[in-house]
Amino acid sequence: MRGVFFLSFVFPKFCVSCGSLDFFSEIMAVCKSCAKQNYLPQKQILNQKQTNPPSDRFVFYDQTFHLQKRGSFEKSLFQSLKFENERLLSEYFCLGHRTILKFLKDDPPDLIALVPSSPKSSPRPYHASDALLKKWKKLWKIRRDTNLRKISADKQSSLGFENRFFHAKKAFEFTKSDRIMEGLHVLIVDDIFTTGATVNEIARLYKQAGVRKVTCVVLLLSGGD
């Protein structure tokens, strides 16, 4: 603990938005004033909850949740998190993660998986959703599935709406095909939901493997550009 205070003294972490320094900026790179002004509890609410299987036969996830919606403030912070290595911002985007637990308490997940962001296996690049995955893995004490991998080097962000779905079809696979997945509830964690192509394809792979239910949780809900 002393080491943390020493590092804060020597390398203070200022708010990435306004440049202020306080306790909040030290732990999540956003000061209390900016967080209070921009973060609303309403943004923690459920994006989509489906108690029954989706009516669309091409939708394979059963329910999705988001922690925040993308506005200009969130967009700026998210870009800093993903492209400027401001890793503390992941704590800001995890705010309110416990509110979703009440929707899952009657049917908690058996397995948790992080959407792979790169086909590289080692060293694994930093993922914006790492913090959220670690928090929930600890809360539920459930196993993480590391058998999901990305086999395409293409970026979804560079593709149009329809092409995202075509790309996703060939972008992921399991490293092992003989696993027992029958009847499990899988929780998929990702950083952003734009079209849903990525999480939908991963959900399809899990359902094909015998999974009973797939829940998706993302840090940020985006309506696309």
Automatic annotation (TrEMBL):
Domain of life where this protein originates:
Bacteria
Which InterPro entries does the entry link to?
Answer: ComF/GntX_DNA_util-trans, PRTase-like, PRTase_dom
Q: Which Pfam families match?
A: Pribosyltran
Residue span, Phosphoribosyltransferase domain: 148-220
Task: Tell me its family.
Answer: Belongs to the ComF/GntX family.
**Protein's name according to its UniProt entry:** ComF family protein
Which species is listed as the source?
Leptospira kanakyensis
